[in-house]
Amino acid sequence: MPISKILVSQPRPATEHNPYAELEEVYNVKFDFHQLISIEGLDAKEFRKQHVYIQEYSAVFMNSRLAIDHFFRLCQEMRIQVSEDMHYYCISEMVANYLQKYIQYRKRRIFFAEHNKFEELLPYINRKDERKMMIVLSDVHNDDVINLFAKKGLVLTPAIMYRTVPVRWPETEPFDHDMVVLFTPMGVSALKKNFPTLKQGDKVFACFGANTAAALEEIGIKPDVVAPSPQFPGITSAIKYYLEQNK
Q1: CB atoms within 10 A of CB 44
Q2: Which residue, 107, 119, 161, 224, is the most exposed by fewest CB within 10 angstroms?
Q3: Residue 34 C-beta-side C-alpha neighbours within 13 Å
Q4: Rounded Cα–Cα distance for residues 247 and 232 (Å)
Q5: Are 209 and 238 in contact (CB under 8 A)?
């Protein structure tokens, strides 16, 4: 079916020159940006209930810039001076570079995965140096990385530092989009919470990631567009292909 109005469950891009703007111009569609989830940081009192004592750890794993922000926020709130010898293991170079917001990059020990997989970092881990390791997580997460490291005889302690909560859809804003683009299973859950009677109908659903696709199928919706894939490395390229095929 022809598409004219598309909901993207992310913040609006910071600049006018972005892939969505290009699609709007070429295919005469309109993108609406509306976050379905928001992030709340745990306070010091909540974090302490986990009995994870940052000072005792020699290494911390970061899977996003968000994780970095909340790690240093809590350290500041709890007046913890992070050791100069702390090792930082990051899911990507982009995340590793973000550490420069808080520390002097060259003076710390920082490692990052080349292809966004924590297992790539295993060769860098010195079992003598890394007495205790932690990973910064949201309350909504899976334990795949923790289990992977456990199989290698390494203990990676989860440290929940922020939570994901659904955002209420404005009552005055119509939900009349032809296509809905989702990025996380929590986004799917938030959509269902806002619209309990949601059915697929004529709407087209696009999603990023296998877990998001599985979450959609669990609520009875078959995703029409899925990325990444060998053909579509990103969600915008997948949307472009769909729009081209359904002019």
Answers
A1: 14
A2: 107
A3: 20
A4: 19
A5: no
Residue-wise pLDDT tens digits, 76-92: 999 999 998 899 999 99
Q: Cα separation of 203 and 180, whole Å?
A: 7
* Domain span at 24: 5-36+167-245
Looking at the structure, do residues 136 and 155 belong to the same domain, yes or no?
yes
CB–CB of 84/107 below 8 Å? yes
- Strands of the sheet containing 225-227, edge to edge, are 30-33, 5-8, 179-182, 204-208, 225-227
State whether 139 and 236 are in the same domain: no
The domain boundary, picked from 164, 193, 220, lies at 164
Residue with tokens 């809590």: 74
Nearest-angstrom CA–CA distance, 166 and 61:
26
pLDDT in tens, 136-184: 999 988 899 999 999 999 999 999 999 999 999 998 999 999 999 999 9
> Residue 63 is which amino acid?
N
Grouping H, G, I as helix, E, B as strand and the rest as coil, residue 228 is coil
Strand partners, 66: none
Task: Indicate the burial class of 185 (C-beta count within 10 angstroms; 0-12, 13-18, 19 or more).
Answer: buried
pTM for the predicted model, two decimal places: 0.73
116/148 same-domain check: yes
What distance, in Å, lies between the first and last C-alpha atoms of the chain? 8
Q: Which pLDDT band, with edges at 50, 70 and 90, does 238 fall under?
A: very high
Q: Retrieve residue 241's tokens.
A: 């292909």
